[in-house]
Write a structure and sequence with these properties.
This protein has a two-stranded antiparallel sheet with strand order 1-2. It has about 60 residues and is mostly helical. The longest helix is centred in the first third of the chain and has 13 residues. It is globular, with a radius of gyration of 11 Å. The protein has one domain. The two termini are about 20 Å apart. The chain is built from three helices and two strands; from the N terminus they run βααβα.
C-alpha cells in the first residue's frame, strides 16, 4: 500500500480508515471493490482490491 506521495502505509492505518468509512456509511452494503475505490479516492492510496478483501476478512468486517 502506497500513498500518492510515495510513502508506504501500514495495514493498521488502512484498517482504521476502513472502519471509519464503514461507520460513516449511509446504510448501504458495500463490497470490497467499492471500499477499495473509497480508499483510493479519500486517502490517495495505491492499493489492490485483493489486499482490501484480505484486510476486511481478517478483521471480520
Amino acid at each position: 500500500m502506497w500513498t500518492a506521495n510515495d510513502t508506504q502505509g501500514a495495514e493498521g492505518q488502512v484498517l482504521e480508515w476502513l472502519s471509519a468509512l464503514i461507520i460513516a456509511g449511509d446504510g448501504q452494503a458495500y463490497g470490497y471493490r467499492q471500499w477499495t475505490t473509497g480508499l483510493r479516492r479519500e486517502h490517495g492510496l495505491i492499493i489492490n482490491k485483493k489486499t482490501v478483501y484480505r484486510l476486511l476478512r481478517s478483521a471480520d468486517l
